[in-house]
Protein backbone atom coordinates (compact mmCIF):
# COMPACT_ATOMS: atom_id res chain seq x y z
CA UNK A 1 0.00 0.00 0.00
CA UNK A 2 1.23 3.55 -0.75
CA UNK A 3 3.95 2.47 -3.16
CA UNK A 4 5.95 5.15 -4.96
CA UNK A 5 5.52 4.39 -8.65
CA UNK A 6 7.48 7.27 -10.08
CA UNK A 7 9.20 10.52 -9.17
CA UNK A 8 9.55 13.59 -11.32
CA UNK A 9 12.06 16.40 -10.91
CA UNK A 10 12.11 19.21 -13.46
CA UNK A 11 11.51 22.96 -13.67
CA UNK A 12 7.79 22.55 -13.15
CA UNK A 13 7.41 19.81 -10.60
CA UNK A 14 9.26 17.78 -8.02
CA UNK A 15 6.82 15.06 -7.10
CA UNK A 16 6.21 11.47 -6.13
CA UNK A 17 3.40 9.44 -7.66
CA UNK A 18 1.84 7.13 -5.09
CA UNK A 19 -0.12 3.99 -5.94
CA UNK A 20 -2.62 3.14 -3.20
CA UNK A 21 -4.47 0.18 -4.69
CA UNK A 22 -2.24 -2.34 -6.47
CA UNK A 23 -1.19 -4.11 -3.27
CA UNK A 24 -4.56 -4.11 -1.57
CA UNK A 25 -6.05 -7.54 -0.87
CA UNK A 26 -9.60 -6.27 -1.03
CA UNK A 27 -11.09 -4.59 -4.06
CA UNK A 28 -11.95 -0.95 -3.68
CA UNK A 29 -15.00 0.10 -5.70
CA UNK A 30 -14.02 2.50 -8.45
CA UNK A 31 -16.49 5.14 -7.31
CA UNK A 32 -14.75 5.25 -3.94
CA UNK A 33 -11.19 5.46 -5.24
CA UNK A 34 -11.18 9.17 -6.00
CA UNK A 35 -12.63 10.00 -2.59
CA UNK A 36 -10.10 7.77 -0.83
CA UNK A 37 -7.18 9.13 -2.86
CA UNK A 38 -8.14 12.69 -2.02
CA UNK A 39 -8.48 11.95 1.70
CA UNK A 40 -5.16 10.10 1.84
CA UNK A 41 -3.39 12.81 -0.16
CA UNK A 42 -4.76 15.46 2.19
CA UNK A 43 -3.51 13.45 5.17
CA UNK A 44 -0.05 12.92 3.65
CA UNK A 45 0.25 16.64 2.89
CA UNK A 46 -0.60 17.43 6.52
CA UNK A 47 1.94 14.91 7.77
CA UNK A 48 4.70 16.26 5.51
CA UNK A 49 4.10 19.80 6.79
CA UNK A 50 3.96 18.69 10.44
CA UNK A 51 7.12 16.59 10.21
CA UNK A 52 9.16 19.11 8.25
CA UNK A 53 8.20 21.82 10.77
CA UNK A 54 10.02 19.68 13.34
CA UNK A 55 13.07 19.58 11.07
CA UNK A 56 12.49 15.85 10.47
CA UNK A 57 11.91 13.85 7.33
CA UNK A 58 8.59 12.04 6.78
CA UNK A 59 10.47 9.49 4.64
CA UNK A 60 11.59 6.20 6.18
CA UNK A 61 15.36 6.07 6.66
CA UNK A 62 15.90 9.76 5.92
CA UNK A 63 16.90 12.57 8.27
CA UNK A 64 17.60 16.28 7.93
CA UNK A 65 21.25 17.26 8.47
CA UNK A 66 21.69 20.27 10.74
CA UNK A 67 22.21 23.69 9.22
CA UNK A 68 25.72 25.06 9.17
CA UNK A 69 26.40 27.30 12.16
CA UNK A 70 26.69 30.35 9.97
CA UNK A 71 23.43 29.72 8.13
CA UNK A 72 21.60 28.90 11.37
CA UNK A 73 22.85 32.17 12.82
CA UNK A 74 21.78 34.01 9.71
CA UNK A 75 18.25 32.56 9.93
CA UNK A 76 18.00 33.58 13.57
CA UNK A 77 19.15 37.09 12.72
CA UNK A 78 16.16 37.21 10.35
CA UNK A 79 13.72 36.23 13.13
CA UNK A 80 13.46 32.65 11.88
CA UNK A 81 14.16 29.40 13.75
CA UNK A 82 17.77 28.28 13.24
CA UNK A 83 16.81 24.71 12.33
CA UNK A 84 16.53 22.82 9.02
CA UNK A 85 12.77 23.13 8.57
CA UNK A 86 13.05 23.98 4.86
CA UNK A 87 11.58 27.41 5.43
CA UNK A 88 12.91 30.88 4.81
CA UNK A 89 10.42 32.80 2.71
CA UNK A 90 7.89 29.99 3.12
CA UNK A 91 7.12 29.91 -0.61
CA UNK A 92 8.30 26.36 -1.26
CA UNK A 93 6.23 24.75 1.49
CA UNK A 94 3.26 26.92 0.53
CA UNK A 95 3.50 25.25 -2.88
CA UNK A 96 3.20 21.70 -1.46
CA UNK A 97 0.17 20.20 -3.17
CA UNK A 98 -1.27 17.07 -4.72
CA UNK A 99 -3.23 15.82 -7.73
CA UNK A 100 -5.47 12.74 -7.68
CA UNK A 101 -4.51 10.09 -10.22
CA UNK A 102 -6.17 6.87 -11.38
CA UNK A 103 -4.06 4.80 -8.99
CA UNK A 104 -3.72 7.21 -6.06
CA UNK A 105 -2.16 10.65 -6.11
CA UNK A 106 0.88 12.69 -7.04
CA UNK A 107 2.32 14.86 -4.27
CA UNK A 108 5.09 17.40 -4.13
CA UNK A 109 5.97 20.88 -5.26
CA UNK A 110 4.36 22.18 -8.43
CA UNK A 111 5.35 25.39 -10.18
CA UNK A 112 8.21 27.82 -9.75
CA UNK A 113 9.41 26.36 -6.44
CA UNK A 114 10.00 22.90 -7.98
CA UNK A 115 13.73 23.39 -8.56
CA UNK A 116 14.26 24.45 -4.96
CA UNK A 117 12.42 21.28 -3.88
CA UNK A 118 14.64 19.13 -6.07
CA UNK A 119 17.63 20.78 -4.42
CA UNK A 120 16.46 19.29 -1.13
CA UNK A 121 15.09 15.96 -2.40
CA UNK A 122 17.85 15.28 -4.95
CA UNK A 123 15.96 12.76 -7.09
CA UNK A 124 18.28 13.45 -10.03
CA UNK A 125 21.40 12.96 -7.92
CA UNK A 126 23.12 16.19 -8.84
CA UNK A 127 22.10 18.56 -6.06
CA UNK A 128 24.95 20.09 -4.09
CA UNK A 129 22.78 20.75 -1.04
CA UNK A 130 22.65 18.41 1.95
CA UNK A 131 19.84 15.96 1.18
CA UNK A 132 16.66 16.76 3.12
CA UNK A 133 14.08 14.59 1.44
CA UNK A 134 10.47 15.32 2.25
CA UNK A 135 8.82 13.17 -0.39
CA UNK A 136 9.87 9.56 -1.03
CA UNK A 137 11.75 8.30 -4.05
CA UNK A 138 10.94 5.00 -5.81
CA UNK A 139 11.86 2.18 -3.46
CA UNK A 140 11.25 4.38 -0.43
CA UNK A 141 8.28 4.70 1.86
CA UNK A 142 6.79 7.13 4.30
CA UNK A 143 7.54 6.54 7.99
CA UNK A 144 5.54 3.82 9.72
CA UNK A 145 3.20 6.19 11.58
CA UNK A 146 2.16 7.79 8.31
CA UNK A 147 1.71 4.41 6.62
CA UNK A 148 -0.48 3.29 9.51
CA UNK A 149 -2.59 6.43 9.14
CA UNK A 150 -3.00 5.80 5.40
CA UNK A 151 -4.12 2.25 6.09
CA UNK A 152 -6.77 3.38 8.55
CA UNK A 153 -8.13 6.02 6.18
CA UNK A 154 -8.57 3.49 3.38
CA UNK A 155 -10.26 0.95 5.63
CA UNK A 156 -12.51 3.58 7.21
CA UNK A 157 -13.62 4.88 3.83
CA UNK A 158 -14.37 1.40 2.52
CA UNK A 159 -16.42 0.71 5.64
CA UNK A 160 -18.14 4.11 5.71
CA UNK A 161 -21.02 3.21 3.48
CA UNK A 162 -21.63 -0.11 5.20
CA UNK A 163 -25.08 -0.71 6.60
CA UNK A 164 -25.62 -4.12 8.02
CA UNK A 165 -28.94 -5.72 7.12
CA UNK A 166 -31.01 -5.82 10.30
CA UNK A 167 -32.78 -9.09 9.48
CA UNK A 168 -29.40 -10.78 9.09
CA UNK A 169 -28.06 -9.34 12.33
CA UNK A 170 -31.20 -10.55 14.11
CA UNK A 171 -30.45 -14.14 13.09
CA UNK A 172 -26.89 -14.24 14.41
CA UNK A 173 -26.61 -16.25 17.61
CA UNK A 174 -22.90 -16.88 18.18
CA UNK A 175 -19.39 -15.66 17.38
CA UNK A 176 -18.93 -18.08 14.50
CA UNK A 177 -22.03 -16.82 12.69
CA UNK A 178 -21.03 -13.22 13.33
CA UNK A 179 -17.57 -13.72 11.87
CA UNK A 180 -18.97 -15.51 8.80
CA UNK A 181 -21.21 -12.51 8.29
CA UNK A 182 -18.45 -9.92 8.84
CA UNK A 183 -15.94 -11.67 6.58
CA UNK A 184 -18.46 -11.54 3.79
CA UNK A 185 -19.16 -7.85 4.44
CA UNK A 186 -15.47 -6.93 4.64
CA UNK A 187 -14.04 -9.24 2.02
CA UNK A 188 -10.24 -9.30 2.07
CA UNK A 189 -9.90 -7.67 5.51
CA UNK A 190 -8.02 -9.52 8.27
CA UNK A 191 -9.87 -10.14 11.55
CA UNK A 192 -7.87 -7.43 13.32
CA UNK A 193 -8.72 -5.00 10.52
CA UNK A 194 -12.43 -5.78 10.80
CA UNK A 195 -12.33 -5.13 14.54
CA UNK A 196 -10.41 -1.95 13.84
CA UNK A 197 -12.95 -0.70 11.32
CA UNK A 198 -15.93 -1.44 13.55
CA UNK A 199 -14.30 0.03 16.63
CA UNK A 200 -13.47 3.24 14.76
CA UNK A 201 -17.07 3.70 13.73
CA UNK A 202 -19.63 4.33 16.51
CA UNK A 203 -22.31 3.84 13.86
CA UNK A 204 -21.25 0.29 12.99
CA UNK A 205 -20.62 -0.49 16.65
CA UNK A 206 -24.12 0.65 17.52
CA UNK A 207 -25.67 -1.46 14.77
CA UNK A 208 -24.05 -4.53 16.31
CA UNK A 209 -24.77 -3.34 19.84
CA UNK A 210 -28.49 -3.12 19.06
CA UNK A 211 -28.54 -6.91 18.62
CA UNK A 212 -26.13 -7.54 21.48
CA UNK A 213 -23.46 -8.79 19.07
CA UNK A 214 -20.47 -6.68 20.11
CA UNK A 215 -19.56 -9.28 22.73
CA UNK A 216 -18.93 -11.85 19.98
CA UNK A 217 -16.20 -9.76 18.37
CA UNK A 218 -13.88 -10.93 21.10
CA UNK A 219 -14.74 -14.56 20.33
CA UNK A 220 -13.45 -17.13 17.91
CA UNK A 221 -14.52 -16.87 14.32
CA UNK B 1 -21.67 36.84 15.11
CA UNK B 2 -20.30 33.59 13.72
CA UNK B 3 -20.08 30.68 16.09
CA UNK B 4 -16.82 30.68 18.01
CA UNK B 5 -17.19 27.03 18.92
CA UNK B 6 -17.86 23.86 17.01
CA UNK B 7 -19.59 20.64 18.03
CA UNK B 8 -17.72 17.51 17.10
CA UNK B 9 -20.19 14.91 15.93
CA UNK B 10 -19.22 11.66 14.36
CA UNK B 11 -22.62 11.29 12.75
CA UNK B 12 -26.25 11.88 13.55
CA UNK B 13 -26.12 9.02 16.01
CA UNK B 14 -23.62 10.58 18.38
CA UNK B 15 -26.35 11.57 20.78
CA UNK B 16 -27.52 7.98 20.80
CA UNK B 17 -23.89 6.92 21.22
CA UNK B 18 -23.64 9.04 24.31
CA UNK B 19 -26.98 7.87 25.66
CA UNK B 20 -26.13 4.24 24.95
CA UNK B 21 -22.87 4.64 26.83
CA UNK B 22 -20.60 3.99 23.88
CA UNK B 23 -19.20 7.50 24.22
CA UNK B 24 -19.13 7.97 27.97
CA UNK B 25 -18.13 11.09 29.89
CA UNK B 26 -14.55 9.90 30.33
CA UNK B 27 -14.17 9.27 26.60
CA UNK B 28 -15.74 12.63 25.89
CA UNK B 29 -13.19 14.29 28.15
CA UNK B 30 -10.34 12.46 26.46
CA UNK B 31 -11.64 13.52 23.08
CA UNK B 32 -11.84 17.14 24.18
CA UNK B 33 -8.37 17.14 25.70
CA UNK B 34 -6.97 15.56 22.55
CA UNK B 35 -8.62 18.20 20.39
CA UNK B 36 -7.05 20.96 22.48
CA UNK B 37 -3.62 19.30 22.30
CA UNK B 38 -3.75 18.68 18.55
CA UNK B 39 -5.11 22.13 17.80
CA UNK B 40 -2.13 23.50 19.69
CA UNK B 41 0.33 21.31 17.77
CA UNK B 42 -0.98 22.51 14.45
CA UNK B 43 -1.01 26.16 15.48
CA UNK B 44 2.51 25.87 16.94
CA UNK B 45 3.67 24.94 13.44
CA UNK B 46 1.74 27.58 11.59
CA UNK B 47 -0.62 25.06 9.99
CA UNK B 48 -4.40 25.40 10.00
CA UNK B 49 -6.24 22.55 11.76
CA UNK B 50 -9.11 23.08 9.32
CA UNK B 51 -9.16 20.64 6.43
CA UNK B 52 -7.95 22.06 3.13
CA UNK B 53 -6.65 25.37 4.56
CA UNK B 54 -2.95 24.44 4.65
CA UNK B 55 -0.33 26.75 6.10
CA UNK B 56 -1.25 30.11 7.55
CA UNK B 57 -0.44 33.16 5.48
CA UNK B 58 2.74 34.96 6.46
CA UNK B 59 2.88 37.89 8.85
CA UNK B 60 2.99 41.37 7.34
CA UNK B 61 6.80 41.66 7.36
CA UNK B 62 7.07 38.65 5.10
CA UNK B 63 4.27 39.61 2.75
CA UNK B 64 6.20 42.55 1.27
CA UNK B 65 8.94 42.31 -1.32
CA UNK B 66 12.35 43.73 -0.53
CA UNK B 67 13.58 44.62 2.94
CA UNK B 68 10.58 44.93 5.27
CA UNK B 69 10.11 47.97 7.47
CA UNK B 70 10.54 47.52 11.22
CA UNK B 71 7.05 48.94 11.64
CA UNK B 72 5.59 45.74 10.19
CA UNK B 73 4.43 42.81 12.34
CA UNK B 74 6.11 40.99 14.06
CA UNK B 75 9.10 43.34 14.02
CA UNK B 76 6.76 45.99 15.43
CA UNK B 77 6.28 44.00 18.67
CA UNK B 78 9.74 42.57 19.16
CA UNK B 79 10.81 45.28 21.61
CA UNK B 80 8.16 44.03 24.01
CA UNK B 81 8.14 40.39 22.83
CA UNK B 82 11.70 39.66 21.66
CA UNK B 83 11.02 35.95 21.07
CA UNK B 84 8.24 36.59 18.55
CA UNK B 85 9.54 35.40 15.18
CA UNK B 86 8.52 35.73 11.53
CA UNK B 87 7.79 32.00 11.46
CA UNK B 88 5.92 29.99 12.57
CA UNK B 89 2.71 31.96 12.15
CA UNK B 90 1.24 30.58 15.36
CA UNK B 91 -1.46 33.10 16.39
CA UNK B 92 0.37 33.59 19.66
CA UNK B 93 1.98 36.61 21.23
CA UNK B 94 1.41 36.47 24.99
CA UNK B 95 -0.52 33.17 24.90
CA UNK B 96 -3.84 34.50 26.23
CA UNK B 97 -5.79 34.11 22.99
CA UNK B 98 -4.83 30.51 22.41
CA UNK B 99 -5.31 29.52 26.03
CA UNK B 100 -8.97 30.53 25.65
CA UNK B 101 -9.52 27.58 23.27
CA UNK B 102 -11.12 24.82 25.31
CA UNK B 103 -13.93 22.23 25.29
CA UNK B 104 -16.91 20.83 27.13
CA UNK B 105 -18.89 17.61 26.75
CA UNK B 106 -22.59 18.10 26.04
CA UNK B 107 -25.45 15.79 25.12
CA UNK B 108 -24.91 16.60 21.44
CA UNK B 109 -21.20 15.97 21.36
CA UNK B 110 -18.02 17.77 22.28
CA UNK B 111 -18.17 21.55 22.08
CA UNK B 112 -14.75 22.96 21.19
CA UNK B 113 -13.45 26.47 20.71
CA UNK B 114 -14.04 29.71 22.60
CA UNK B 115 -16.63 28.57 25.14
CA UNK B 116 -16.40 31.99 26.84
CA UNK B 117 -14.80 35.03 25.24
CA UNK B 118 -13.80 38.47 26.40
CA UNK B 119 -13.83 41.38 23.99
CA UNK B 120 -10.18 41.04 22.97
CA UNK B 121 -10.56 37.34 22.23
CA UNK B 122 -13.69 38.05 20.21
CA UNK B 123 -11.81 40.68 18.20
CA UNK B 124 -8.98 38.24 17.44
CA UNK B 125 -11.42 35.41 16.63
CA UNK B 126 -13.26 37.62 14.16
CA UNK B 127 -10.01 38.74 12.58
CA UNK B 128 -8.25 35.37 12.34
CA UNK B 129 -11.06 32.87 11.87
CA UNK B 130 -13.67 35.03 10.20
CA UNK B 131 -11.43 37.34 8.17
CA UNK B 132 -13.29 40.43 9.34
CA UNK B 133 -10.24 42.67 9.74
CA UNK B 134 -9.06 43.89 6.34
CA UNK B 135 -5.57 44.43 7.72
CA UNK B 136 -5.20 40.80 8.84
CA UNK B 137 -5.32 37.78 6.48
CA UNK B 138 -7.89 35.15 7.39
CA UNK B 139 -6.29 32.25 9.24
CA UNK B 140 -8.95 29.67 10.03
CA UNK B 141 -8.38 27.61 13.13
CA UNK B 142 -11.97 26.51 13.88
CA UNK B 143 -14.15 24.66 11.34
CA UNK B 144 -17.30 26.54 12.30
CA UNK B 145 -19.10 26.74 8.97
CA UNK B 146 -21.19 24.13 7.17
CA UNK B 147 -18.95 21.84 5.17
CA UNK B 148 -15.82 22.61 7.19
CA UNK B 149 -14.11 19.98 9.28
CA UNK B 150 -10.91 19.30 11.15
CA UNK B 151 -7.89 18.00 9.24
CA UNK B 152 -7.65 14.30 8.50
CA UNK B 153 -4.81 13.90 11.02
CA UNK B 154 -7.03 15.14 13.86
CA UNK B 155 -10.03 13.06 12.81
CA UNK B 156 -7.83 9.96 12.64
CA UNK B 157 -6.76 10.48 16.25
CA UNK B 158 -10.36 11.07 17.32
CA UNK B 159 -11.33 7.78 15.72
CA UNK B 160 -8.45 6.04 17.51
CA UNK B 161 -9.82 7.23 20.88
CA UNK B 162 -13.33 6.04 20.01
CA UNK B 163 -11.84 2.75 18.87
CA UNK B 164 -10.11 2.23 22.20
CA UNK B 165 -13.39 2.85 24.02
CA UNK B 166 -15.35 0.44 21.81
CA UNK B 167 -12.68 -2.24 22.11
CA UNK B 168 -13.03 -1.97 25.88
CA UNK B 169 -16.78 -2.46 25.52
CA UNK B 170 -16.17 -5.48 23.32
CA UNK B 171 -14.00 -6.95 26.10
CA UNK B 172 -16.83 -6.34 28.55
CA UNK B 173 -15.23 -3.42 30.34
CA UNK B 174 -18.03 -0.89 30.29
Question: Gist?
Answer:
By secondary structure, chain A is an alpha+beta fold. Helices cover 44% and strands 12% of the residues of chain A.
What does this structure look like?
The complex is a heterodimer of chains A (221) and B (174). The longest helix of chain A has 24 residues, at 30-53. In chain A, helix 1 (30-53) packs antiparallel against helix 5 and helix 5 packs across helix 8. In chain A, strand 1 and strand 2 form a beta hairpin. With 221 residues, chain A is of the alpha+beta class. Chain A contains nine helices and four strands; from the N terminus they run ββαααββαααααα. Chain A has a four-stranded antiparallel sheet with strand order 1-2-4-3. With 174 residues, chain B is mainly alpha-helical. In chain B, strands 1-3-2 form a three-stranded antiparallel sheet. In chain B, a hairpin with a 4-residue loop joins strand 2 (101-105) and strand 3. Chain B is elongated, with a radius of gyration of 19 Å. In chain B, 34% of the residues are buried. Mean pLDDT of chain B is 87; it is low at 10-15. Classes of the chains: A alpha+beta (221), B mainly alpha (174).
Write the layout of secondary structure elements.
The complex is a heterodimer of chains A (221) and B (174).
Chain A: E1 3-9, E2 13-19, H1 30-53, H2 69-77, H3 91-94, E3 96-100, E4 104-110, H4 114-121, H5 144-160, H6 166-171, H7 175-185, H8 191-199, H9 202-210
Antiparallel strand pairs in A: 1-2, 2-4, 3-4
Helix pairs in contact in A: 1-5, 5-8
Chain B: E1 5-8, H1 14-20, H2 25-44, H3 60-63, H4 96-99, E2 101-105, E3 110-114, H5 119-128, H6 152-170
Antiparallel strand pairs in B: 1-3, 2-3
Helix pairs in contact in B: 2-6
Amino acid sequence: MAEVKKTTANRNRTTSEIDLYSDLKSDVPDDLKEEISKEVAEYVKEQILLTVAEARSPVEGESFPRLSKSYAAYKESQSLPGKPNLEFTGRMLNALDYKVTDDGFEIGIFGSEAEKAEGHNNFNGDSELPQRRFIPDTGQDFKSGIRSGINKIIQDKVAEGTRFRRFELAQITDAGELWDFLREEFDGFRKSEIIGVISRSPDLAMQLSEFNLLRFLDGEG
Amino acid sequence: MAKAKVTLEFNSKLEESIKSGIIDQATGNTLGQTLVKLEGEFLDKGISPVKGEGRFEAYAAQRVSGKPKRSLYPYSVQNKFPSKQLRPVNLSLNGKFRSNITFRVTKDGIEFGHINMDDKTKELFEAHNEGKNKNVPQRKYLPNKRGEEFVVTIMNEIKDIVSKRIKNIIKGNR
